[in-house]
Amino acid sequence: MLWLYQPAAYCLLPTTYCKTMGYDILSKVIELTDSTDALEKRLKDVANLLAHSFVFDQCAIYLLNQEKHILNLTVAAGRKKGCKAEYKENEGLPGLAIRNGKPVFATQAMPAKETWQGVIDKGMNGYKTIVCYPIKDDWLHGVLYLKNKRKKAITHKQKRLLNVITLQLATAIKNYQCIVNLKDINTKMQDMQARLVHAEKLLALGELAASLAHEIRNPLMSIGGFAKRLYQQLGTDSPYIGYIDRIVKEVARLERLMDRIVHFSRESRSVFSVEDINGIIDEAITFFEEDFKRSGITVVKELSIGMPKIEVDRQQMRLVFNNLMTNAIQAMTKGGVLTVQTHQDGNWVVAEVDDTGGGIDPKIISNIFNPFYTTKESGTGLGLAITHSIITNHKGIIEVNNNIGVGVTFIIKLPLAGKEDRILEAS
Predict the structure, then answer these.
(1) Tens digit of pLDDT for each residue in 277-303?
(2) Domains in the chain, ordered, with CATH?
(3) What 3-state class would DSSP assign to 170?
């Protein structure tokens, strides 16, 4: 006796064969969903398998965006016609399946209709048989949407098989999301660990710096004082006046260095106030106006209008932009372009300082925020360390976008006023 498979009607194959075919489909679905491919590739393979095995003209899988409550089309197999890009969580047959918590089996005599039992769904247009399964376990993950141009019956065993398949899809999606979340958490933990190591390093170096600054300052003041007295006693025609003048200038430079070390290492009381970041940046640019002209640097300001306020210590934030602009000037000794931008990104106010000074050597970029690390002959290695410390104390983030051969961009992110609890004692 010859058995023929008729997809538009009930299964006419022997029961044993139908069971075997069901196990084969389920086994293949498990194999596809458990692969190491990207989630979209796995779902695409499953959609192709289901469209072929159950003989549907279209098989689409929509995944739920939990925040926006929207079902987004992730993959589709078969015909593209009538495949909507997205559904609201309560829209169409997918919304009905979600509300009822169970699959929807819809058939209609006219394929051009877009309404079934009062539910409007433009995705039904052109199809007579529609099957819509919620993909869920303890949580809703999405919807499996099957369509056929002709009327076809879905057997009880096929329905049970689709139930198991959607449960397997839910498990695969949840596992994938767990892996993504774990990777994200691991990345954040590594970043936090690096920040803690850096903070401990700064603390140790700060204590050492404070101790050294105290020990050096007193004899330095004596040297400077006696050198000035000698300078006053010697005439301008003395052959030693040049040496004395050099001593006085070098002592003054060391005193400035000591001041910066003390500022970096000591505990300072921050005075927070609600400020406009554009105003702080304008002040810094004005302060360096003559330096920009002498160095042949063109300043481009792209400051967004109506920026939200930030809660900062204004003087410390001025120091941040002063340090960044000083670095930019030193990097662009032969002229260039300094671009300063501001914009809002969610709960962050973002400022970007971009120069065309050729970028930072990748070998040293991991050290640029370390105190006393510098590649400049006259540098102290404290500018960026102080900048990093100030931004961190303001609950902000500082990032570096290094473009070798072109320039470097420092990106500062500060929380909106009122978005963070302020700690008035900052170190």
Answers:
(1) 999 999 999 888 888 998 999 999 999
(2) 15-182 (3.30.450.40), 268-427 (3.30.565.10)
(3) helix
